[in-house]
Hints:
With 107 residues, this protein is α+β, with helices and mostly antiparallel strands. Helices cover 44% and strands 19% of the residues. Helix 2 (66-79) packs across helix 3. The radius of gyration is 14 Å and the shape is globular.
Amino acid sequence: MKAKYAECSTQDNPVIYVETNYGGKTVSYNVNINEVDPNNASRLEMFALCSYADDVGIGDDSTFGTYKTLCSYMEMANHNGFVFQVSCKVTYYILQYFVLWQRFSRS
């Protein structure tokens, strides 16, 4: 997936243009960040939200980006048997705590 600001995006109403290539077919979506509910977000919406968070400096400051960290946490939780059917919602909350921990540990 690739993300960039959509042409209709503004500072008050950020919209992220996401392009995917599933099954050899390129599809694009505009995701309004103000309308994304992390509690019920799809993976595509979480990708857009994490991309936005990285751009405005509220992501996790990792080398590969907040979305990659989110996916890694989901895979680890599932692999270790801590959570069955790991969802973006569960992992988003784990990521929030991780980001807060990072910020406070730097202070």
